[in-house]
Amino acid sequence: MGQDQTKQQIEKGLQLYQSNQTEKALHVWLKVLEKSTDAAGRFRVLGCLITAHSEMGRYKDMLKFAVVQIDTARELEDPDYLTESYLNLARSNEKLCEFQKTISYCKTCLNMQGTTVSLQLNGQVSLSMGNAYLGLSIFQKALECFEKALRYAHNNDDKMLECRVCCSLGNFYTHLKESMKIALQHGDRPLQAQCLLCFADIHRSRADIQIAFPRYDSSMSIMTEIGNRLGQIQVLLGVAKCWVIQKELDKALESIEKAYELAEGLGNKLGLLKVHCLCEGIYRTKGQQRELRNHVVKFHECVEEMELYCGMCGESIGDKNHQLQALPCSHVFHIKCLQTNGTRGCPNCRRSSVKPGFV
User: Does the keyword section mention Metal-binding (predicted)?
Assistant: First the structure.
């Protein structure tokens, strides 16, 4: 079966599927998979089979076809195909509650940045990763992923993705309520504070500011009581973001100043980095150039101190989803930079880079 016939049969299967003749559609697609000599056509029909089996709840079959699709993508040697197939593999594992595998495959997708398809799929990758973190009850990371997915949905006017993210946030909220209930039953104050912070962040991400504020206040009260200063920094930065949304920039700066004092006292460079990043945005909006330059300089000083940059090309790590490699000496580089370096030693300290780890 050649390229044209493969395309015709795929379309025939889609028409059957859309008219609710699911089994007939599957039969047509499986015949295409068996007889087609067109690798790109086989890749597309595997995508149809993956989607159909996902919607039917046949997740083991979904995974089976996702594995075949990976092999087909490798045969095609196209990074766009490979990104899409890894996303399908992540989704399949998510449905089967293999959450660690889901996160691993999602990270692989994000490391394939720069291709057209990978940029389009980032929202879906973030959603799948958020669902996996939710399954593992790692609420803060789940919320961060959902927020990213929601931003992608809004920026690309993707209503379907927005709907799916909102459904996941509903599940997230339910999980949090259960966790809060358990925390209250057992008198677990740290967990109560963390749940309240997550509740507040959810409401902030949905622009429910008046609901977010009292949650932040309650979380702050417990964080202060138990002496969790890192938690207090998170709360204060969340409050500042609420004030930014309400365009109360001076009030935002008041919260940021408190967060800065705590972060400075703890030597918490990540907290300081977030402080300077927020201040940069605020002073840019206010048009105060001197303060803006001051925080830009301090932001880059934090990046320098934390070594959040590639030691070869000098680009910041984290601005783009490039694949990284950590050497035994703990220095981190872009893999592409190390590959062009042509040496086994670390470019920074010249220590041996035998058995490097991936991050």
Answer: yes
CATH fold of 187-306 reads: 1.25.40
Give the DSSP letter of residue 330: S
Between the CA of residue 54 and those of 44, 51, 99, what are the distances in Å? 15, 5, 16
Half-sphere exposure of residue 21, counting CA atoms within 13 Å on the CB side?
11
Residues in CB range of 119: below 8 A, 6 or more apart: 113
Beta strand 324-326 pairing with 357-358: antiparallel
Tens-digit pLDDT profile for residues 35-83: 888 888 889 999 999 988 887 778 888 899 999 999 998 888 888 888 8
Choose which CATH entry (2.60.40, 3.30.70, 3.40.50, 3.30.40) describes domain 319-353: 3.30.40
